[in-house]
Amino acid sequence: MLACQSASAQPGGDPSGTWLTESGSKVRVARCGSGYCGILASTTGSGLDVNNPDPALKTRKLVGVQILSTTSPTADGFEGTLYNPNDGKTYSGSMTPKGADHLAVSGCVLRVLCKSQTWTRVK
């Protein structure tokens, strides 16, 4: 298997950088162990984690919160987890580079019900 394949060998290239989500937030993606992590760099709305199920975290600022953790390389990207601040839930998911300037991100419940977004690289 290609589990040890480097990020630069991924078909879509290295996803490191800052990405604009479909909702207008920005996520900074960087190498993190054998995969990538994504930290919120800016957000729309109140900027607080009001939907977090942990009452102690409902007042934390979302900027700086890690929402993406991918640790398992796949043939075309990485699999891992995604935190959705809009509902306060963490989902299994994937991140797939689509060329140099687009990133397909998908979060799933039971690998059946999935929602996807295409993020655009900020230059």
Describe the overall structure.
There is one protein chain. Helix content is 0%, strand content 49%. The protein is mainly beta and 123 residues long. The protein has an eight-stranded antiparallel barrel with strand order 1-2-3-4-5-6-7-8. A hairpin with a 4-residue loop joins β4 and β5 (78-84).
The topology string of helices and strands comes to EEEEEEEE
Helix content: under 10%
Describe the oligomeric state of these chains in a short phrase.
single chain
Binned strand content: over 45%
Unreliable segments (pLDDT under 50, ≥5 consecutive)?
Answer: 1-11
Outline type = globular
The tally of strands reads 8
Average pLDDT metric: 88
Number of helices: 0
Characteristics:
single chain; 123 residues; mainly beta
Detail the topology: elements first, then pairings.
Elements: E1 17-20, E2 26-32, E3 35-42, E4 66-73, E5 78-84, E6 89-97, E7 102-109, E8 113-121
Antiparallel strand pairs: 1-2, 1-8, 2-3, 3-4, 4-5, 5-6, 6-7, 7-8
Summarize the structure.
The protein is mainly beta and 123 residues long. 0% of the residues lie in helices and 49% in strands. It starts with 16 loop residues before the first strand and ends with a strand.
